[in-house]
Amino acid sequence: MLATTLLLLICELQAVCAITRFYNLTLHSGVRSPDGYPREVYLINDQQPGPLIEANQGDTLEVTVFNNLTVENTIHWHGLLQRGTPDMDGVPGVTQFPIPAGGNFTYRMPLGDQYGFYWYHSHFKTYYDDAVRGPLLIHPSPSLQRPFESLAKNATDLPALLQAERNATPVLLADWYHNLSNSVYQEYMTTGAFPNCVDSLLANGRGRVQCLPDSRAMSTPVSSGGTGGGQMQSTALNALGCTPPMMFNPGYSMDSLPAVTCNNTSSPLLTIPANYSQGWLALHLVNAAATSKLRVSLDAHSMFVFAADGLYVEMQEVKVLPISIGQRYSVMIRLDQKPGKYYLRFASYPVGDMQQVIEDQAIIQYDASCTMTAIVSTGLTYTAIPYDDPRSIWMLLNGSAKAQARVLNEKNLAPLNSNTPPSSPADLTKVFTINQTDPVVWVVDKYPYSEPQVPVIYGNSSDGWTANTTIHMPYNATIDVVMQIANDSMDVMGHPMHLHGHKFWVLGSGSGPFPYSSVDDAPRSAINLQNPPYRDTVELPASGWVVIRYITDNPGGWLFHCHIQWHLVSGMALVLVEGDDLLPGIVSAPRNITTPGVSQPSVTSSSGTDQLTPRGGGMLLAVAMLYILLV
After folding, report:
1. Which end of the chain has less Cβ packing within 10 Å, N or C?
2. Structure pTM?
3. Mind telling me which SUPFAM superfamilies this protein's record contains (predicted)?
4. What superfamily in CATH does domain 18-144+594-609 come from?
5. 618-630 vs 2-16: helix axis angle to the nearest 10?
6. CA distance 57 to 97
7. How confident is the model at residue 512, as a pLDDT?
């Protein structure tokens, strides 16, 4: 009986020892060469991407950001709901004033029952594309249900899967320009030429410039049109794999742009070690790009998707994983091939006027040094260079899946816990029509968004409280949001739409304008109310529609925007306010902000003596040892 009690204590100890974890992040400038080309980079604690911020489910995070840059900044915690702390969301003009150069700001965020993989990034102008971004992981309670039973083939598999999850590697995938984002943005505003042509792709801040060979430029198919079907003339691709811009401001043309140059580099790639004897490897993947929708595959392996946007889902086995900007997926990989190195490939997926053929790689390396017994007994050999059998590569260079390669079906990402939306009709339906009205103007609903001078959450004192781009929603209501591309829009691309402060159910999507008057009028074949995906970022299809449903149960002002960096700063956003009457009692005045002065040393630390889930604390170890002695 005592042994059983102690075992239960082991399982639940960390879940009830919620504490406050303190982190300091210092933003500063430096010169780095993430893809072999040196440029100025905005660093966090002298690294890019920034350090992993981690906590246990139920903890509180307190993160002080010291801004040692010469520009203002904020940090947004992508996917965190900020229940009761809407002023901690990190959006200038909506939830806070920007952190001035030389100043600091403390974000205090109780995590409640949230768990899973998230990320943090600058939400001021275009600075997250200069490397102001990093991973954030909330370790789930040991008692939380996992979706791993379907993968376990024997009694040892389930513990190995749980261990792999505890040791999962976060991987931030991003596109990269060789110029500061301010320069890229200014060229876009001046010429009207959309900056879809990036210089490289990075995994955890590492990558290579890989110029498109002339032979590939002449033969690589590139999708075109609103749905991605058909092909463009491949001869239009330049050395970076890009097609010419589709539009310009009056008076500008291709001759107005600098010549495209490309020189291959051989900088080191990210290498992720995996222990063959443990059987499984877990990765947390996020598309932290400014421009590029990505597709990911691992040579010779399947990926088992077990979480989306931080939450457990019904398992899907895939060879190719599409990831829109801002989205996260957690995947499990069975280590069932011969020990060696395998390319984790990530490629831009060209659709509409987002046209670039570019791929980069990271390396998954089986740790043969730890598994000599297994290698000898099976006759396997260790591969010194990455395994490169064309039959085991699941994607083409342009991100298209090969015929035998299964691609993730996002519509089938049902929540593991049977989290279903209210089945009764919505209290309110909002139709937002996405439109590009000018080469450099993007709108969500008629008007381009501009940042208010006073944050919206401060009510009538804010110039944004009654703006055309601020919509006041009824509180504790079920809301349906229909998003669609305007018929007369100049763009034919998809848009990754992110809602702050909420998760939402993705009820359906399709091509063309939304063909029904409301969700209730749509057939069940078009709308899923039984087990729809539950996300915080969703892809609005090119020239198509998507419907989401959420409940306005979180008082605050929440930005709703496209996560393509250049679209957001060109007006593609709204502020959705809920719980107007409750906000004064939650947010009384700007707080935790310090004007320029001497910043503190850049360190990262946790409070107390308990440790995070993967490492285990001293008390947990002591209880475990006592349990072993008793049994």
Report:
1. N
2. 0.90
3. Cupredoxins
4. Cupredoxins -  blue copper proteins (2.60.40.420)
5. 170
6. 29
7. 93
User: Which single residue is written with the structure tokens 């043309």?
Assistant: 253
pLDDT, residue 629, reads 36
| Residue 244 half-sphere exposure toward CB, CA atoms < 13 A | 12
- DSSP annotation of 437 reads E
- Confidence band of 615 (pLDDT split at 50, 70, 90): very low
Burial of 164 (0-12, 13-18, 19+ CB in 10 A): buried
Reported as a single tens digit per residue, the pLDDT across 99-136 is 999 999 999 999 999 999 999 999 999 999 999 999 99
Tell me the pLDDT band of 613, cut-offs 50, 70 and 90: low
Are the CB atoms for 223 and 231 separated by under 8 Å? yes
Segment 351-361 mean pLDDT: 83
CA distances from residue 342 to 134, 323, 331, 398, 500 in whole angstroms, order as listed: 25, 20, 16, 19, 36
Q: Which fold has domain 271-412?
A: Immunoglobulin-like (2.60.40)
C-alpha span between 385 and 387 (Å, rounded): 6
> In angstroms, how far is CA 464 from the centroid of its own chain?
27
Q: Strand, coil or helix: what is 316?
A: strand
Is residue 231 over pLDDT 60?
no
In which residue ranges of the chain is CATH 2.60.40.420 found? 18-144+594-609, 271-412, 428-578
Q: What pLDDT score was predicted for residue 369? A: 55
* 3-state SS, residue 528: coil
DSSP string across 329-352: EEEEEE--S-SSEEEEEEEE--BT
- Round the average pLDDT of the chain to a whole number and report it: 87
Q: For residues 443 and 446, what is the distance between their CA atoms, to the nearest angstrom?
A: 6
Q: Which long-range contacts (CB under 8 A, 24 or more apart) does 35-38 make?
A: 35/176, 35/199, 35/200, 35/202, 35/206, 35/207, 35/208, 35/209, 35/265, 35/267, 36/208, 36/209, 36/265, 36/266, 36/267, 37/178, 37/199, 37/200, 37/209, 37/265
For residue 498, what is the DSSP state? E
- The order of strands in the sheet holding 104-110 is 39-44, 20-32, 60-67, 104-110, 593-594
